[in-house]
Amino acid sequence: MLHCNMNTSPSIQLVLEDLLADLHHARRNTDLGRLALLGYCEVRNWARLAGKPDIAEWATRMFTENPCVSRDEFLEKIDTLIAALEHHQQPAVAPAGPFAQADASSGCHRAH
């Protein structure tokens, strides 16, 4: 069921936003194990769903063909991977609807 719904662009973008948030959090905390998990499993999964085989292939090669010999080299590669993913992130779209323009121009916030 989840895979059927993942083919829409908004869903893929939401997954990417979550993935980037996880990567940034792990990078900020220097959580090498979490970065490896996200980089090898989650990035490749997102890239395949999003139709980005180049990113999936790069993430695979990062761990299988060219393993890092130092912590700093690994973090550099993760930073490059994060930058590549951010390049594919689309800006958030403003909500559409009859009240979206009125609320934005009046400065009023609707209660949720």
Largest sheet: none
Structural class: mainly alpha
Spell the H/E element sequence: HHHHHH
Helix content: over 70%
Q: Rounded to an integer, what's the Rg over CA atoms?
A: 18 Å
What is the distance, rounded to the nearest whole angstrom, between the alpha carbons of the first and last residues? 29 Å
Q: Domains counted in the coordinates: how many? A: 1
- If helices are DSSP runs of H or I spanning 4 or more residues, what is the number of helices? 6
Tell the overall outline.
globular
The count of β-strands is 0
Provide the β-strand percentage band.
under 5%
Question: Regions with pLDDT < 50 over 5+ consecutive residues?
Answer: 1-7, 99-112
The average pLDDT value, as a whole number, equals 81
Textual characterization of the structure:
By secondary structure, the chain is an all-alpha fold. The protein has one domain (10-106). It is 71% helix and 0% strand. It is built from six helices and no strands. The chain has helices at residues 2-5, 9-28, 32-50, 53-64, 71-87, 100-106. It is globular, with a radius of gyration of 18 Å.
Describe this protein with a few key phrases.
single chain, 112 residues, mainly alpha, 6 helices, globular, disordered N terminus, disordered C terminus
Task: Summarize the helices and strands and which ones pair or pack.
Blueprint (H helix, E strand, L loop, with lengths): L1 H4 L3 H20 L3 H19 L2 H12 L6 H17 L12 H7 L6
Helix pairs in contact: 2-3, 2-5, 3-4
In short:
With 112 residues, the chain is mainly α. The protein has helices at 2-5, 9-28, 32-50, 53-64, 71-87, 100-106. Helix 2 packs antiparallel against helix 3 and helix 2 (9-28) packs antiparallel against helix 5.
